[in-house]
Design a protein that fits this description.
The structure is a homodimer of 504-residue chains. With 504 residues, chain A is an alpha/beta fold. Chain A is built from 16 helices and 21 strands. Chain A starts with a strand and ends with a strand.
Chain lengths: 504, 504
C-alpha cells in the first residue's frame, strides 16, 4: 500500500507521512479484533466507561499544542477556531462521561409478573445493549469535533461499542495524532486493545462498510458520498444502520417586521454566519428569505457591505474549493438569478464570498436543484419575497434541512406559522439566532428529514446521539442471580428505572 | 378493479365481497388526505389522542361477536384464541392511551442558556414530533393483534400519525369490519377524516410503500416479502424507514440439568408452544437444542408422544399450508436429518405436526439455510448435543432471532453463558418459559438483529414501539409565547421533563 500524503492547503506543500494506506487484510484484522473485544468492552462497569472518556479528553488536551499545529497545517483554519474546536471536542468526551454516569441511555424498564385483561404477564425487564463495532467516517470540515475524536466516536464509545474510524484524507496527520491521544487515554484505564482503530485510504472506507464485524456506521459528509455508502450498507447480506449526516441548505427567513427593526444587525451577523469557517459548516445558512422593498433592501445592502470587507479565504482542500467554484458558477448561470456580490475569481484552495438573489416567484416554481441544494462554501442565495403568500410558496419548495432559522419582530404575526413550517422541514428551529453553532447538550438535535440525515430521528450531536448505537434486549422470567445488575429490583447501580410503568 | 375474495380455509368456500381492490388513484387520494390532516392530528391535545384510542377499543369490543365470527370464517383459528386475541387488541389500544397520557414518549428536554467550556450555549428545548402518515401491512397470522387494529396501527396513532393499512388477503372481511369499528371510534371523538384508511390488493402494498405522502412503514411477515418491500422503501427518491418484523427460528435450549429435573413437563409445554396457532407464530420455537443421552431422550420421547395426540389442523390459507409442506419436506430430504415424528400427509389447508432431529456436529458445520431458517407451521428441528462444546458451536451457527429461550436447572452452571449468547442473538431472552406469548408491556422487546427485524433497535410490541414513528425537533432561542406547551418552563401539560440534564 502507498504512503499517506498530507497537503497544506494554504501553501500547497505536500508531505509524505510515515503512515501506509490500510490494506484489506489489516482492515479485516482490526474490525475482527473490535468484534472480539466488544463483549469485554460492553460488560465493563459504567463508571469505568466514563473514566475512559475522561482520560481520552485529558490526553487530547495534553497534546493540544501539537494537535492544533497539525490541524492548522492541514486545514488552513485559524488557530482560535481550532483551539475552540479542540476544547469543544474534549468537552464532548466529558459530556458523554456524564451521560454514561447518569444512565438514562440504558432505558431500563422492569415489569413484574402480573395479571392483565390479556391474561397473566410474565416478569419482563428491558435495557439497551451496545450494537457492537461501529465504523466512523471523519469529516473534512471539523478535524476534531466531527473527526477521529469527534461526536460519533465519543457517543459510540459511550454506548459501549468499539470504534473503527476511517480518517478523512484532508487531515491525516491530525487524525493520527488525535488517534494516538485517544489510545493513550484508553490504555491509561486498561481498555481492551482494539477499542479504537484508525484506517487510511479511500478503499478503506468501502471495506469498512462491508466488513461483517461492523454493526453500524456514522458518517458526516456530502449527499453524494453519503448516499453511496448508505446504499452499500444496505447491500450487505446483513444490512446495517447507516447514520449519515448529509447536506442541508439551512434556510433562514427574515420577516418584514424583523428587517424594519434591525436590518444592519441581522445582516452583519448573517455575513459572519455564512462565511464562518469559509462557509464550510453543515449548518451554513445557504438560502435566505428577505422581503422586497426598502426594509429588505437595507438588509441586502448591509450584507453585501459586510462581505466586501472580507479578504480571500483558504478552503480545506483544492477539491473542495473547485467544487465550490463549480457550484457558485452554476448558480450564477441560472436564468433569473442576479449576482449581488462576487468577491472575485480565485484558483487553487482560495475562495471569495459570493451572493446571489432570485425572486420568490421564480424560486417557488423552479425545479432546479441548483437553487435549493446545499453549496458548500461562502455563498448564499437570497430569495426576495413580495408577500407572505410568496414566502409560503417558496418555503413549500425547500428541501428538508438540519436547521431552519427565522428572524422575527417582537410580536411578529408571522412567527407562529413560520415555526410550524420549520418544524416540518428541519431538526432544529431557531429564532433570532444563526444556525452555525451546534451546542453539545442534552437537548440538541443535529439531524433532519432526508436528505439532511439518512435516518429521520438520528442526531449526530448531543446526548441523544448515543441512541444510534444501542439495541434493547428484554429478559423474561430470569431469576435475580442471572439478571444484569441494571435490571435487579434492588437497583445496585442506582440507575433511573421505570418500574411497572412508573418512572423512578 | 376486481372485487376482493374471502376464503374459508376450513371449507374452501369463497365469497366475493362487496369491496373493490384499491385503485392507484384511490391510494394516492387516501395517502394525500392522510398527509393533509397530519398536522391537525399531530396538534390535538394528548388527552384527546388517548381518548381516541380508548374509543377505538370500545368500538372493537362492541362488535366483538361479529369480528370473531368473521375471523373464525377466514382463519380457521378457534373461537377462544380469537376472543383472546381481540381482548388483547383492545387492551393494546388502551395501553397506548396510557403511554400517551404518561408522556415520556415525547422525550422532553430543556436546557436553559448557559456558559460552558465550549462557550455560551443558547436556550435549547427538544421534543419528539410525529413523522407523518404511516403505512401498515397487516399480517396473516393475527387477524386482530398484528393486523388492521393491531400494534403498528395503535402505536402510530399514539405517536400522532395518520395510518394507511394494507389489509392481508387472508382475512379481508375481518379487516374491513375492524376498520369500520376503528373509524366509528375515531368519529366519536371527531377525529379528522383520513386519520385511518384501508387498502386492498397486492399492488396496493407496492403503491403504499411508494407513495410520497407516506413517511414510514410497519410490516409483519416473511423475510422474502419484507426484504423486497424494505428494498422498495430504500429505492424511493426520498427513502423512508421500513420497520419489518420478519422471520425467526426462535432457538430454545434445554440443558442437561433441566432435562434431568423435568423432562416431561418441558416436553409437554414445548409441544404446545410449537403447535400453538398451528405453529403460525413468529415466536414459534423452531430450533430446539436437547442433550444426547437418557435425559435428553426422555424429553424427545415425551415431545413425540404429545405431538401424536394432536389431530390434523387447518392452516390460515392453502398458500401457507403448501409453503409449510414444501419447507418440511425440504428438511426431511436433508442428509443426516432424522424424522422423529410425521403426523401424516395432508392436502389443501390441512397440516400435521412434524419433528426432525440432527446431530449438533452436523448442524454446527452446515451451510444449509434449511436447517437454521424459519419454517412457518407446526414443525421443529431438534439439535442433539453431546457436550457443552458442541452446544456452543451449534449456537454460534444460528441466525439472530426474535427470541432465545433456555430451560435450565436450579443452579445451572450453563445459565450464564447461555444468557450471554441469547443476548447477542435475540431481542428477548427467556428462562424456563416458552417464547410464543408476547405480552403488551412497557418492558417488551419484540424485534431482534437482522433478519429478525430490519432495524435492530425496533420493537413492534410494547410501549417502545411508539418510538418508530417519532422524530425529535429542537427549538433554539424560541420565546415562551411561541414554544409548544410541552416545552414551556411552567410545564402546563405536566409532562416528564429533563431540565438542564436532570430528570423531573
Amino acid at each position: 500500500m502507498s504512503n499517506v500524503v498530507s497537503v497544506n492547503p494554504a501553501t500547497g506543500e505536500t508531505r509524505i507521512l510515515d503512515i501506509k494506506e490500510s490494506s484489506p487484510e489489516l482492515i479485516r484484522e482490526l474490525c475482527q479484533r473490535a468484534l472480539d473485544i466488544s463483549r469485554d468492552l460492553a460488560d465493563r462497569p459504567l463508571a469505568w466507561r466514563a473514566s475512559m472518556l475522561r482520560a481520552m479528553a485529558d490526553e487530547l488536551e495534553r497534546d493540544a499544542e501539537a494537535l492544533v499545529h497539525d490541524a492548522m497545517t492541514e486545514t488552513a483554519l485559524p488557530r482560535p477556531r481550532l483551539e475552540g474546536e479542540l476544547r469543544r471536542t474534549a468537552f464532548q468526551l466529558r459530556f458523554f462521561a456524564v451521560v454514561v454516569d447518569e444512565g438514562s441511555f440504558l432505558d431500563v424498564s422492569i415489569d413484574h409478573a402480573t395479571d392483565s385483561p390479556m391474561g397473566p404477564l410474565p416478569d419482563l425487564r428491558r435495557l439497551r445493549r451496545p450494537l457492537g463495532p461501529v465504523g466512523v467516517f471523519g469529516s473534512s470540515n471539523f478535524p476534531f469535533a466531527f473527526s477521529v475524536p469527534g461526536g460519533d466516536t465519543a457517543s459510540a464509545l459511550a454506548a459501549g461499542c468499539p470504534v473503527v474510524v476511517k480518517a478523512h484524507p484532508a487531515h491525516p496527520a491530525t487524525s493520527q495524532r488525535a488517534f494516538e491521544a485517544l489510545v493513550r487515554g484508553a490504555q491509561s484505564v486498561d481498555a481492551p486493545e482494539g477499542t479504537l482503530a484508525l484506517l487510511f485510504g479511500f478503499d478503506a472506507g468501502l471495506h469498512l462498510v462491508d466488513d461483517p464485524a461492523i454493526r453500524a456506521v456514522g458518517f458526516t459528509g456530502s449527499v453524494a458520498a453519503g448516499r453511496s455508502l448508505w446504499q452499500r450498507a444496505n447491500d450487505r447480506s446483513v444490512p446495517i444502520p447507516f447514520y449519515g449526516e448529509l447536506g442541508s441548505a439551512n434556510p433562514l427567513v427574515v420577516t418584514t417586521a424583523a428587517a424594519k427593526e434591525r436590518a444592519i444587525e441581522i445582516a452583519t451577523g448573517l455575513a459572519g454566519s455564512m462565511t464562518l469557517g469559509v462557509g464550510q459548516f453543515c449548518t451554513k445558512p445557504g438560502l435566505v428569505f428577505i422581503p422586497s422593498g426598502a426594509e429588505g433592501d437595507q438588509v441586502v445592502v448591509a450584507l453585501v457591505e459586510s462581505l466586501q470587507s472580507l479578504r480571500e479565504m483558504t478552503m480545506l482542500s483544492e477539491g473542495i474549493a473547485d467544487h465550490f467554484r463549480t457550484g457558485a458558477s452554476r448558480i450564477a448561470r441560472q436564468s433569473d438569478i442576479h449576482t449581488l456580490f462576487d468577491g472575485g475569481a480565485t484558483a487553487g484552495t482560495s475562495a471569495t464570498a459570493q451572493l446571489f438573489s432570485v425572486a420568490a416567484t421564480t424560486f417557488a416554481q423552479s425545479s432546479s436543484p441548483t437553487l435549493y441544494d446545499e453549496c458548500f462554501g461562502p455563498v448564499a442565495i437570497i430569495v426576495r419575497y413580495e408577500t407572505t403568500t410568496e414566502l409560503r410558496a417558496s418555503l413549500h419548495r425547500i428541501e428538508p434541512a438540519l436547521t431552519f432559522s427565522v428572524f422575527v419582530g417582537g410580536d411578529d404575526a408571522d412567527a407562529t406559522w413560520l415555526l410550524e413550517v420549520g418544524e416540518q422541514k428541519a431538526g432544529r428551529v431557531i429564532v433570532n439566532q444563526y444556525p452555525t453553532g451546534v451546542g453539545v447538550a442534552w437537548s440538541m438535535q443535529h439531524g433532519g428529514p432526508w436528505p439532511a440525515t439518512t435516518v429521520p430521528w438520528a442526531t449526530s450531536v448531543g446526548a441523544a446521539s448515543i441512541d444510534r448505537w444501542l439495541r434493547p434486549v428484554t429478559y423474561q422470567g430470569v431469576p435475580d442471580q442471572w439478571l444484569p445488575l441494571a435490571l435487579r429490583d434492588d437497583n445496585p447501580l442506582g440507575l433511573p428505572q421505570r418500574v411497572n410503568g412508573e418512572r423512578r
